Amino acid sequence: MSRTYQDDPSLPGAGPGLLARIGPRTVRTRIFLLxxxxxAGTIGLSQFLYGRHGAVxxxxxxxxxxxxxxxxxxxxQITRPLIQMTRTAEKVAGGDLKQRARVYGRDEAGVLARTxxxxxxxxxxxxxxxxxxxxxLEDEAGRKAAQFEKDAAERVxxxxxxxxxxxEIDQFVDKRTEELSRANDELHGKVLETRRSEDYLxxxxxxxxxxxxxxxxxxxxxxxxxxxxxxxxQNRVSSLAVAIAQEMNLPWEKIEGLRFAGIIHDIxxxxxxxxxxxxxxxxxxxxxxxxxxxxxxxxEMIKDxxxxxxxxxxxxxxxxxxxxxxxxxxxxxxxxxxxARILAVADVVEALCSLRPYxxxxxxxxxxxxxxxxxxxxxxxxxxxxxxKVFRERRFSFKKEPQTPLYQ
Length: 408
Prior knowledge:
The protein is an all-alpha fold. The protein has helices at 18-21, 24-50, 54-93, 108-226, 233-247, 252-263, 274-277, 285-292, 294-302, 311-317, 338-353, 364-373, 381-392.
């Protein structure tokens, strides 16, 4: 704002414009000189025409003074609005926007003064608006600065808390890692100990299973010592039953139970008299009834032994039939254990293939024909189909067991 009205070429009267070349004082002076020259010329012309009379000279001098005064007043009247607007413009240029030009009339100078005042009103209003906007922006900037400072302080606080939390977490992780490492070492030791225990238990289980199978075979041999015609029968039935069960995709637990049950399925015949077992002709009704009791006798013999499989019930049901025509309880369909249904088919096939005191061996085809005819009537359909399949595809055959000197 140090630059004045005359220094700014954009303001009225500045630069190479009219008011720069002809100021108010110059206008008054030139008007005065113009009137003086005109009056002097008039006086001179009058003196030349009328001679050198003193009265004419006095009148001329009075007219000259009057004209000069009139020229001075007229020039002042003309230049006063311009002078006032010039002073107003200088004050406005100095920063006082409340200044207004005085309007002296409705001529061009008055229009110029009113236009200047309107411009100053607009400029003052714009300045007030700008000042208000500046104040709003300053207030907003202050609020934002305060909020920024608050956010910065909060960010610093959060960063401190995060550093402290990270330090605590690192300490916790280190501690837990150390604890987990110790626990892992202990667990590794326990795993090794458990593996050793499992290996020991497995070896013990294998020995027990071998002992159990040896016991079963010893029980089977007890029956075979009384009845030479039963030699190898139970082992062969057990082998065929396992082959059928594998073809049917039974679980391993059921197959193991079936194998052990097959080895001693006829153990109940030990209660029958040797004379009946070796009788070379058809048995009487009472004799056959004694034979029919062997499943229940076998069940009673081993029911109190704690096996992991239902061996006693398999032995009890191995002569039951799907249509209820079997014995000892006349069970029907699904009431018969699947292991007993498999054992029934294997028992019939092997029995017809083997020699009996009352008939010769009838051969494998006769045994398969028998179960084929009883399919879906006396024997389970799936069991018969699996039995026929293992023989048809030659995935099973009865192995001839060598006779011991006892039977030779």
